[in-house]
Amino acid sequence: MTSIQGxxxxxxxxxxxxxxxxxxxxxxxxxxxxxxDLDAAGAQAVAGEIAAGGGRxxxxxxxxxDEAAVEAGVERAAAEFGGVDILVSNAGIQIVNPIEQxxxxxWKRMLAIHLDxxxxxxxxxxxxxxxxxxxRSRGGTVIYMGSVHSHLASPLKSAYVxxxxxxxxxxxxxxxxxxxxxxxxxxxxxxxxxxxLVDKQIPEQARELGISEEEVVSRVMLGHTVDGVFTTVxxxxxxxxxxxxxxxxxxxxxxIVVSHGWHMQ
Length: 265
Ligand code: NAD
Prior knowledge:
globular; 3-hydroxybutyrate dehydrogenase activity; binds nicotinamide-adenine-dinucleotide; two-stranded antiparallel ribbon; Rossmann fold; SDR; alpha/beta; SDR_fam; 8 helices; 3-OHbutyrate_DH
């Protein structure tokens, strides 16, 4: 494996849940990490914890749907850390509703955060990854946070499923465009992970589906796993680190499902 010690990473949505653990994992591996999130105080707290543990971190208040904010944040991280080697486009939300009741504004907000956010952050980091350094591109790794829902559908999640499927297209296109310039891309696809995003869904899904919260967990969330166990933030963070440390482009343009066997490809 290739060490990422001294590399520079930007993780969006890193004030909470999966992104937060990815930031810690990359910092433990020796990378300098920019914690980009809408929640500025949360980003500051995570950056402070990493710094207190001896790591290098920078908090960035960033709405990933705002092109100017994304560009300013990426430029700040690149200036502070001397470049950008890793982007983890992870910021996301969930809104559940049947299609006929799904507000158009909610649909647009979902696609903006998941897809526009992935596009804008990618576009902003690529000049840094394509930068010529001694006759060759600096290169880098871009990881999109997909989901098992990048591969299959569940009721009530039209916008989420659409957005998560869409990330596969972006990752594959980037793998082709970036291949000769040392840029690799992947979609990491977790099953259910107990984070605020999922905790919020349990009562909402129970109400919509007319079942108990226990049934939402055992049937809807874990019913298709091989062992009835939640995926953890650590499982996802370790997978991201593995992909960043993988030494060649033999692995690029892939989707890696981390889900206790829910959807095997
Ligand atoms: P979370 O709610 O714990 O964290 C999401 C973070 O994204 C929050 O800190 C929030 O402030 C930030 N965010 C939201 N909108 C933003 C915006 N416009 N700009 C910048 N930051 C913004 O959620 P999580 O469960 O850690 O989810 C992280 C990612 O993982 C999402 O893309 C989600 O779809 C994906 N995912 C989660 C699960 C799961 O079961 N939790 C499973 C598969 C995929």
